[in-house]
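Anyone else keep sequences and structure tokens together like this?

Example one:
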Amino acid sequence: MADEGTRVAFDREQYRKVQQLVTDVERTNDDALYGTDGYAISSDLRAQPAEARWEVAVQVGNDVSALAGQVRTFTDTFTDKTLPNFRDQLEKAEKLFEETDDLSVADAQA
């Protein structure tokens, strides 16, 4: 909340930096799931050969595979749903900021 008599103004340049950061994260998130040598972070990723016989090696392989699958599921949801929704909300907020002379008196419900 602003102090009495202090006007809170919209800084478009700083806001665009936030929007660009969200766009960059969205774009590079998918890139991080795939290596240049062909591996991918998904439930197919293994730390041990699938034919491993030693119980500890089998468990490590299964755990890494499960973790990689969870990472992939989270990242896909984050990239495909969460970030686009957040970006849309940033665009809506930008319109409010442009239409409001003093952000300290803006009504979120309006």
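And example two:
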Amino acid sequence: MRFDEAYSGNVFIGASMDLDKAQAVIYGMPMDWTVSFRPGSRFGPARIRESSIVLEEYSHYLRRELKEVTYYDAGDIPLAFGNPERSLQQIGEFVSKVLERKIIPIGMGGEHLVTWPVVREVYNHYPDLAVIHIDAHADLRVDYEGEIYSHATPLRKIAELIGGENVYQFGIRSMTKEEVIYAEEAGIHFYPFDVLEPLKKSLPELAGRPVYVTIDIDALDPAFAPGTGTQEPGGIDTKEMLAAIHAIARSEVRVVGADVVEVAPAYDPTEQTAVVAAKLIREILLGWVK
């Protein structure tokens, strides 16, 4: 992926074509090679961009508009189709280039495994990194049916890399017994079912620290985001998700990277899931890019 030329397709609303002045880089990770139920999240980043045009560039929640933030849309990383290991390597190489410029990477997935190489690169730059994970699924498995590279394993890899005590999980409502035991033994801050209230209580602990935030769209109830590969009933609503983003924005944590993953447009002909994801990205840009 080159940085020295503008992305030739659709771009996220308000994106700048001047990389040198960018405070953040938006990029797509169109990968769904390891999904266990329904593929299609590789089409998520492009659809989120296309759907962003429906949004206003002003957020009354944050009293800011997109022209106050300079961000570059680098397009989708051209990944090695069907090859998880090579694709993860390509993602890591791309993010490393972003971080070398001291720019905040904001990714769009793609399956959740794509978060693993991103956090690995961010951790190389910020050794005191903490991770906030908002999701329906724990993603703490060692492997899924014998495969260590799976969308069910990224948070296990992350916890083993940065230490479980530096991982904060919210909204989890689908997990194995073994994952719960691991979370307890590893010291992960594990908050099942709820997001906003435990997040608000946790943010003071993270004040001043670099934080990476990963949001799986299936943290939302399927009523609000049906376009995802692994739906899980009983989730939060869009209003609570936005409130969580705003709580982080108003806290003293230093967000050094983020992603929104698992948007699979084919399962939502109404396109509400892509529109929701685009709005989350807008609020992330306005709230977390200072």
